[in-house]
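Q: Hi! First time doing this. I have a protein sequence and I read that you can turn it into a structure. Is that right? Here it is:
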Amino acid sequence: MERCIIDERTGWEYELNDEQYYPTGRVEKNGVMTPDIVLEDNEPGKEIPIDIWGKRHSVFLKKHQRRVYNELFCYGKLNAYLTQIDRDAQEMFDLLVRQLAEQEGVTELLKEVNQMEWISKMNSIRDRAAEIVNHELIFV
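A: Yes, that's right. Below is the predicted 3D structure, encoded as structure tokens:
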């Protein structure tokens, strides 16, 4: 029997332990295995609050990937997984907003000169960045 196997349908990795396979918490996405879910500041039993990105992904998992959601929940890794997704998504969103604002010349000077134009452009940038994050991290 192989020591580690990957479920073709779900992408989950399972490790052999005492003649039975158990999920490792790693998932294959686009041919690449995600690292084990480990949070440095997560003490056992301590729940870390999950923000909007993690909540959106949780709803997506419940609705479209019920098995993955149940496995994470049953093995006590759901909160850590959603927290990591939330952090990654927020970092990606912030980076995209900065990059898009820089590309389009949306600066503090524009904010001082024409506030309404700055608000309009920043709202557009934030909406586009949110769509990218949703497409790349949240609804996959």
